[in-house]
Amino acid sequence: MPAKPVRDALTETLAASDAGRLADVHGPYFGQFGGRYVPEALIAALDELEAEFRKAQADAAFAADLERLHREYTGRPSPLTEVPRFAEHADPDGAVRILLKREDLNHTGSHKINNVLGQALLVKRMGKSRVIAETGAGQHGVATATAAALLGLECVVYMGEEDTRRQALNVARMELLGATVVPVAVGTRTLKDAINEALRDWVTNVESTHYLLGTVTGPHPFPEMVREFHRIIGAEAREQVLERVGRLPDVVAACVGGGSNALGLFNAFLDDDGVELYGFEAGGEGIESGRHAARFSGGAPGVLHGARSYLLQDDDGQTRPSHSVSAGLDYPSVGPAHSWLHDIGRATYEPVTDDEAMEAFRLLCRTEGIIPAIESAHALAGALRVGRRRVAEGLRDQVILVNLSGRGDKDVATAATWFGLLDGTTTEGDR
Amino acid sequence: MSTATTASATAARLDALRAEGRPALVGYLPVGYPDVDRSVQAVTTMVDAGVDVVEIGVPYTDPVMDGPVIQEAAEAALHGGTRVRDVLRVVEAVAQHSGGRVPALVMSYYNPVLRYGVEAFARDLSAAGGAGMITPDLIPDEADEWSTAADAHGLDKVYLVAPSSTPERLRLTAQASRGFVYAASTMGVTGARDAVGDRAERLVADTRSAGAAHVCVGLGVSTGDQAAQVGRYADGVIVGSALVRTLLGDAPWSERLDDLGRVTAELATGVARARTAEGTS
């Protein structure tokens, strides 16, 4: 049986959803989380956006446009790759099978393009001519610059000054694509402050400009809308696993920064009670070090960037700086739907340290010939951990589906420094 | 809705000034810049130089409605260790210094108040003699908890409207507000501008039509002439960055206070002549 065609997955995505399914919960609230904690000046634009999104959901022509772009431009469906040599590191006797959903093979190198193309088509429908975006690692900025070039939109990307240094090649990529990259030199100079600056731009230019937010955070309708545009990840993966393995996976794993790749994958399995869902946050240098981005282990509910969600904050409600070796997970809050899934116990969130993530990064390179994004390496490390744990509990024939949300080309410099490849020394091979 | 039944010190002040034939000058300064003690000195200087209502800002790490001047002061205040509870000290100082004549409103993004405890913050603000709170990132739709606490403690609830607000939202916001409605003169963040947006006058008229008894205008006012111009149609003229700017820099503190007093006095002359023939020329 072939994988479900892109068109069917999209129709499923865009169809009016049933009440009663976790996968179809609408904003603005996910349990006590979500909402619209933004200046009044933005409310009209958010209402306009939501109205246009609802119209698009009911419009077969919109689905057809997006389906064509996914197939002809992005290269969907993205394949499913089993990684047995990597999985041996969870259990040498083969009790754990690991399957990767290859969002890294999408055009622009990550899952980000799914959401960007969807929103960019909405921008055209709304008659706006300018898009702005925030970016941390640069993946969302590159995807936005790409869609803007494709559809003839002016594009400005806000990026923390610290991140423009960490990801200099992605700055050049965005500029090659015709975007203007604005380094943000206030606050912590990372993703959080890039979002602040993008919001200030949006408040000022909202009548001509769409804020193409890159993850499942922010004010309603972004958390729901971005989930819908990424729903295709899980819809494809579910069919692919059923075809390949003959049953649903035991565990589904993804890294969680804002949480869009995770939610896109989780969504297809939320209502399958037998499937355990794991989100892996950046544990940085360890929870006890205070230098991490583990909102569920080291944060508490609060409000940031328009939504109520788990948040790294001090006793005064001031946002605490996050830390991660991966710029894409280096964010002090998380999408409200994840906070809800955490609180109702449907998904489990665990931190993965920089060290663990980099070890999994190296392992996937060496055992499978795939260089993952460091963000995705957190999910790989988490999958190994969960696999080992389940084997230790006596379980066998475990199938773990992991979202390989991005490729590691952008991270080569960081990894080379991490492993000491630039100063003439090399680390020992594992084989 | 309890709006009609709870008296507002701020509204009473605006009414008294209206009877005198002029709008209010509403001055903003953040607590903790350059430190808490000196921010008390700055606020009382501003009161002595002629502001009618004060707004005391709570510094926050992520002030998305603020431009570079207020961001700089907030960042420095946080760096210097300013705490949320310090705002209560400044509120108390204003109440004492002015003998209760000058209403003191807190301006805060929502998360610091949420973390403090919304009910506890309302209780402590009221006990300190505060008049209420302005909430730049809290719209009435999300404000049930704050509204309940404010009503319980007799505090003003000042929400914002913007040129982009629809008639429906103007009605909702006017209905939910107590004290006054804060009309953003333009689409944008705080900061001095060469000209106050021409959409401000229309927005004030529309907000009044939507049911607001008092409407004050903020964003972009920095000179006496602008204050006079805006004061023709608004119940109050809100000035922030132009005042904060006088305190930035390395000049001796006494000189900075003098500068603050001078700019405040110029703005006060502006509102004083707003509704005279001279002011409208």
Number of domains of chain B: 1
Radius of gyration of chain A: 20 Å
Largest sheet of chain A: 6 strands, mixed
Please, how many helices of chain A? Answer: 16
Mean pLDDT of chain A: 93
CATH architecture term of chain B: Alpha-Beta Barrel
By CATH, the topology of chain B is TIM Barrel
Q: What is the element string of chain B, with H for helices and E for strands?
A: HEHEHHEHHEHEEHEHEHEHHH
The first-level CATH class name of the largest domain in chain A: Alpha Beta
The number of strands of chain A is: 14
Show unreliable segments of chain B: none
Shape by Cα distribution of chain A = globular
Layout of secondary structure:
The complex is a heterodimer of chains A (431) and B (281).
Chain A: H1 6-14, E1 29-30, E2 33-37, H2 43-57, H3 60-74, E3 80-82, H4 84-87, E4 96-102, H5 112-126, E5 130-135, H6 139-151, E6 154-160, H7 161-166, H8 168-176, E7 180-184, H9 191-205, E8 209-211, H10 222-245, E9 251-255, H11 260-266, E10 276-284, H12 295-298, E11 300-304, E12 306-311, H13 336-343, E13 347-353, H14 354-368, H15 374-392, E14 398-404, H16 412-418
Parallel strand pairs in A: 4-14, 5-6, 5-8, 6-7, 9-10, 9-14, 10-13
Antiparallel strand pairs in A: 1-2, 2-12, 3-4, 11-12
Helix pairs in contact in A: 1-3, 1-10, 3-5, 5-6, 5-10, 6-8, 10-11, 14-15
Chain B: H1 9-20, E1 24-30, H2 36-48, E2 53-57, H3 68-79, H4 86-97, E3 104-107, H5 110-116, H6 118-127, E4 132-134, H7 144-152, E5 156-158, E6 160-161, H8 167-176, E7 181-184, H9 199-209, E8 215-218, H10 224-231, E9 236-239, H11 241-247, H12 253-272, H13 277-280
Parallel strand pairs in B: 1-2, 1-9, 2-3, 3-4, 4-5, 6-7, 7-8, 8-9
